[in-house]
Write a structure and sequence with these properties.
The complex is a heterodimer of chains A (325) and B (220).
Chain A: E1 8-18, E2 24-35, E3 40-44, H1 51-58, E4 66-73, H2 85-92, E5 97-100, H3 104-107, H4 114-126, H5 129-133, H6 137-154, H7 171-184, E6 189-193, H8 201-215, E7 221-226, H9 229-235, E8 238-243, E9 246-252, H10 253-257, H11 265-272, H12 307-311
Parallel strand pairs in A: 3-7, 3-8, 5-6, 6-7
Antiparallel strand pairs in A: 1-2, 1-4, 8-9
Helix pairs in contact in A: 4-6, 4-7, 6-7, 7-8
Chain B: E1 2-12, E2 15-25, E3 30-34, H1 41-48, E4 56-61, E5 64-65, H2 75-78, E6 81-84, H3 98-108, H4 115-126, H5 130-133, H6 142-154, E7 160-164, H7 172-189, E8 192-197, H8 200-206, E9 209-212, H9 213-216
Parallel strand pairs in B: 3-8, 3-9, 6-7, 7-8
Antiparallel strand pairs in B: 1-2, 1-4, 4-5
Helix pairs in contact in B: 3-4, 3-6, 4-6, 6-7
């Protein structure tokens, strides 16, 4: 990391959900990472490990029974966790952080065309009509229309499909429509939550390459949340592995996917499960986030676990939280 | 044998999604069918599972040609094929506990009495704990729900399995675990498998042979 202010600096981020009966579910515990401008961090882990909760916390989209702790600071010093709804709604979402959502077809409004989505976002975020407004309402409308078409083109969304409704699009095109929307505000940070789920391999590659072009080449930072290790390998500079709400390993992508490989036994197991590697699942199942064990959450499934692992939580040291790394 | 002959199928008149597709699976064989998204492979999988009536062509399961599809399919044929879909959320009744979800095919075929024992055995096989069986779909993860859906597909001990992008939503470890469950079941029972997907690495590792969509559909 350079000395330049990180595009996002997350420290000690924790999210707990209050449940009936005074119980708590610890969805995210003590997550810390920094994201430099123009770089990509892939947050990987199995479903239910807390990845998406972390993303929701950054955008202030958690439900009312969530308690957060820690900080997530943007370059101008704004702490996303402390910011009020008005600040997040007016200055953060879409403007300073663009969201590429999971299952874009469900994210888009089913009764409106893609053009209508894009034009609304342009009117709200990009204000191309300000100068045109002086020349009358027709000129303003045309400016919005042109800006929406440019936005579509930027995400390689075909102009011929702009007047279609979300259900008339294939998964790949819906993804591009969502990406186009996320890029309109020209936010310096993009947050992509499982952007490739359900896409076929070629489309995954194309989506990931496009995201990379919109981020690294354009100086934006990208936080990509995914369970798709192949997609993470293709795009990430840094990989953070999450297990049971904790980041258990943070590593440069080259070292993680190549040599020396992952250092945390869970991360090793995840890679070994790939069909191009050993294709062997990690035995057992992750613990319930409402009933985490006192020691390392992975101890029950870990081949190297000993008595210390079961009682003492390993602190992260040089990027890995394991007593045996 | 599971035979699909010259299948043309779709959802609108004169706009077929699948045209002239044919494939043959020998008993116990596993075939991985590869194709890009939107090519019609899921529709063909539904035809193979007798869940969608083709406009043209025949489906023959172990020598018997299907005369009806969906609810018109004879029970003996319908229960010969187990299906697992891509999205477990859309394939599970949100009101049912996982225990009832897995047992539903037994209930629907009047074999309620066997449910308790069969569900317990299968839950262990697919890696679902007893506490998970008492939950409803919104209380479990995608991976856990897909484990239940696989158990449901196996509960009638079908001679054929159709897995339509079964692992597309899942992480690497859950994928390897579910493929392991399918292969263990096939080793026990000699069941055949049609696995539809878009990941050549996965399907080549999993199946005896793979075919690309272009190879099984006729010239347009």
């Amino acid at each position: 990391m350079t000395d330049a202010a990180p595009a996002l600096d997350v420290r000690g981020l924790s999210v707990r959900f209050r449940m009936p009966g005074g119980r708590y579910v610890a969805a995210v515990s003590d997550a810390s990472f920094r994201l430099a401008p123009g770089s990509c961090l892939a947050l990987v882990g199995e479903s239910g490990c807390g990845k998406s909760v972390l993303a929701s916390a950054l955008l202030g989209l958690l439900p009312g029974n969530a308690d957060t702790a820690g900080s997530a600071v943007l370059p101008d010093g704004l702490d996303l966790l402390g910011a009020g709804e008005a600040v997040l709604a007016r200055t953060v979402r879409g403007r300073r952080i663009g969201l590429v959502p999971q299952s874009p077809a469900a994210h888009l409004t089913p009764v409106r065309t893609i053009r209508s989505h894009l034009e609304e976002a342009v009117r709200e975020l990009a204000h191309p009509s300000a100068s045109a407004a002086a020349r009358g309402r027709r000129a303003a409308r045309e400016a919005v229309r042109a800006a929406a078409e440019r936005a579509a083109e930027r995400a390689a969304f075909p102009a011929s499909h702009l007047d279609r409704y979300p259900h008339e699009l294939s998964g790949g095109l819906a993804q591009r429509a969502a990406t186009a929307l996320a890029l309109i505000g020209d936010a310096p940070l993009l947050l992509a939550d499982e952007p490739t789920t359900g896409l076929d391999r070629e489309l995954v590659h194309r989506t990931v390459d496009e995201l990379r072009a919109h981020t690294r080449d354009a100086g934006r930072a990208l936080l990509m949340i995914t369970h798709d290790l192949a997609a993470a390998h293709r795009i990430a500079d840094t990989v953070a592995v999450m297990y049971a709400g904790r980041i258990v390993e943070t590593s440069p992508a080259d070292a993680f996917f190549g040599r020396p490989g992952p250092r945390h036994p869970y991360a090793r197991g995840l890679l070994d499960a790939l069909p191009e590697r050993a294709f062997v699942p990690i035995p057992g199942a992750p613990p319930e986030l409402g009933a985490l064990p006192p020691g390392c959450a992975f101890a029950a499934r870990c081949p190297d676990a000993d008595a210390r692992c079961r009682t003492e939580l390993p602190a992260p040291a040089s990027g890995v939280a394991c007593h045996h790394a | 044998m599971l035979e699909l002959r010259d299948i043309t199928a779709g959802y609108e008149r004169r706009r077929p999604v699948v045209e002239g597709a044919s494939l043959i699976l020998r008993p116990g064989e596993s075939l991985g069918l590869l194709g890009p998204s939107g090519c019609g492979k899921s529709t063909l999988a539904r035809v193979a599972a007798l869940l969608h009536r083709p406009d043209r062509g025949t489906v023959t399961v172990d020598g018997r040609t299907a005369t009806g599809f969906r609810h018109r399919a004879p029970r003996s044929l319908r229960t010969a094929v187990g299906v697992v879909f891509q999205q477990p959320r859309l394939a599970a009744d949100p009101r049912m506990r996982l225990r009832d979800l897995v047992a539903e095919p037994l209930r629907a075929t009047g074999r309620r009495a066997e449910a308790a024992a069969a569900v317990a055995g299968l839950a262990e096989r697919v890696g679902l704990g007893a506490d998970l069986l008492d939950r409803r779909p919104h209380e479990v993860s995608d991976g856990q729900l897909q484990r239940a859906c696989l158990a449901r597909a196996l509960v009638l001990r079908p001679r054929w399995l159709v897995c339509d992008e079964m692992t597309a939503m899942l992480d690497a470890s859950t994928t390897a675990a579910l493929v392991g469950v399918v292969e263990e079941y096939r080793a026990d029972t000699g069941a055949g498998l049609l696995a539809v997907g878009h990941d050549p690495v996965l399907l080549r590792r999993w199946c005896d042979r793979t075919a690309h969509w272009k190879e099984i559909t006729g010239p347009p």
